[in-house]
C-alpha cells in the first residue's frame, strides 16, 4: 500500500512511545541509539519542538546534593542539550588558578617547570562573592607595554611559598622518618600564603581569604639545606584554556538503565540472576498467592518460590553479565532510557556543585541570546 | 672555528678573540673568575678558581655542583 493511501495511522500507544525512548543493550550490539522525536519521522505525528510540551514533560530529580558532589537527573531532554551542559561545566565556567610562577630560589629536587605545573593544578577557594563579582580577567600586556600595566588587584591574586628545610635537633636518635628528622621536609598546599594586593585585604576577610581547598596536597619534598622561595600570581581563566581552570573534577552523565524481566525467573536461577548485577539492583521475593493464582502470569503453581524483582535499575552499571548466561536468554531485556540523563558533578572546590549547574544553565542562556539575533538575521537575509 | 683555536675570553687576553669584548661586566683576572661550588658529598660551599683542583676542601670529594642562579626565573604554570 502506498504511503498516501489515505488510511490514518493510529496514534502510538504508551508502550510504543516507551519503546521508542529506549536504547537496546544486547549481548554484542547496542541498538536504537539516535533520537527520533523530530518532525516527519513518524507518519501523522507532529514532534516539532514545543515549549509547552517541553515544560510539561521536563523533570529534574535530585538524588544527592552534597557541597562538592551532586547527582541529579534531567528527564525529558535531548542528548544535545544535556551534552551542552556537560561541556559548559567542564570548559566554560571561570575559576581562579595559579598562572604565573616567579621562582626566586628552588634547590629542591623537583624542577622549576614541574613545580610550576604542580602549583597550577592546585584548586584554590576563597570568598565566592569577591571571586565572582570583583575579580575580572587578566590580559597579557600588549607588545611594548610595561609588564605590570595590566595587573591590578581586581584581576590578580598574589601568593607566596617560602620554606627552608633544616635538621631537627630534637629528633629522637632512632627516628627514620624524614618528617621527624627535619623541619619542613614536606611542603604542602597549606604552606602557601595569600599576599593581599591593594584592596584585597579588605575584600577578603580572614575566614574567606584565598586558600587551597585541600590543604594536604603534597607539593615538594625537601632535605636539609634545600629551599623554596616562590611567588605566584593567580588569574581567572576558562577550562577551554587549561584544565586547571576547570571548576569540576568530573562532570558526566549516563543514561538511566532499564531492566525488563519478560519471563519469570525462579528458584536457584533467581539467586544467580541477582549475582549478575551490582548489589541493590535486583532482589528476590517470594511469589505471592495472588500471583500464583493469576493465569498467564508465569507464576502459576509456584507460590512461595523465589522470584526476581528489579529493585533499583539506576544503580546498574550495565555490565551485561546477565546476557552471558544461557538460562536467562529471552527472559530479560536490558536498555537505557534515551531522555533520562543522570548527571554527576564533582566540584574541584571553588564553587558548590549545585551552583555550578545553575551557572551552566546561565551560561547556556547567555550563549543562546547571542545565537538568537543571528538566526533571526539569517531568516531575514534569505 | 676548530676547538683548539678557541680562547677563553679574558680581559687581559687578545681583544680580537671572539667573545672577548669590553662589555663584559664580570671581572676576570689571570686566575679566572671565582665561583662558589657545593660539594656533592658533604654539601660544603666554597669558592674555586680556574687553577684550583676540582676537589672539596673539606672532604676531598671530586663531585662539585654549581650554585643555582640568584636571578628570579618566571614560569607559566601550564
Automatic annotation (TrEMBL), chain A:
Signal sequence residues: none
GO CC annotation: nuclear DNA-directed RNA polymerase complex; RNA polymerase I complex; RNA polymerase III complex
GO molecular function terms attached to this record: DNA binding; DNA-directed RNA polymerase activity; protein dimerization activity
Protein origin, superkingdom: Eukaryota
Similarity comment: family membership: Belongs to the archaeal Rpo3/eukaryotic RPB3 RNA polymerase subunit family.
SUPFAM superfamilies xref list: Insert subdomain of RNA polymerase alpha subunit (SSF56553), RBP11-like subunits of RNA polymerase (SSF55257)
Gene3D superfamilies for the chain: DNA-directed RNA polymerase, insert domain, RNA polymerase, RBP11-like subunit
InterPro entries named in the record: DNA-dir_RNA_pol_30-40kDasu_CS, DNA-dir_RNA_pol_insert, DNA-dir_RNA_pol_RpoA/D/Rpb3, RBP11-like, RNAP_Rpo3/Rpb3/RPAC1, RNAPI/III_AC40, RNApol_insert_sf, Rpo3/RPB3_RNA_Pol_subunit
Matches recorded under Pfam families: RNA_pol_A_bac, RNA_pol_L
Region called Disordered, residue ranges: 1-41
Biased composition (Polar residues): 28-38
Keywords from the named record: DNA-directed RNA polymerase, Nucleus, Transcription
Protein name listed in UniProt: DNA-directed RNA polymerases I and III subunit RPAC1
Residues in DNA-directed RNA polymerase RpoA/D/Rpb3-type domain copies: 69-374
Sequence ranges of Basic residues compositional bias: 1-10
One Gene Ontology term from the biological process aspect of the record: DNA-templated transcription
Principal subcellular localization: nucleus
PANTHER family tied to this protein: DNA-DIRECTED RNA POLYMERASE, DNA-DIRECTED RNA POLYMERASES I AND III SUBUNIT RPAC1
Compartments, record wording: Nucleus
TrEMBL record, chain B:
SMART domains in alphabetical order: RPOLCX (SM00659)
SUPFAM superfamilies xrefs: RNA polymerase subunits
Record bears the keyword Metal-binding: yes
InterPro entries: RNAP_P/RPABC4 (IPR006591), RPABC4 (IPR039747), RPABC4/Spt4 (IPR029040)
Record-annotated membrane-spanning stretches: none
Entry's Gene Ontology molecular function annotations: DNA binding; DNA-directed RNA polymerase activity; zinc ion binding
Residue segments, region Disordered: 1-25
Cellular component annotations (GO), alphabetically ordered: RNA polymerase I complex; RNA polymerase II, core complex; RNA polymerase III complex
Highest taxon of the lineage: Eukaryota
Skewed-composition ranges (Polar residues): 9-25
Location of this chain's protein in the cell: Nucleus
Keyword set, alphabetical order: Metal-binding, Nucleus, Zinc
Pfam families: Zn_ribbon_RPAB4
Family indicated by similarity: Belongs to the archaeal Rpo12/eukaryotic RPC10 RNA polymerase subunit family.
Full protein name: Uu.00g008090.m01.CDS01
Annotated organism of origin: Anthostomella pinea
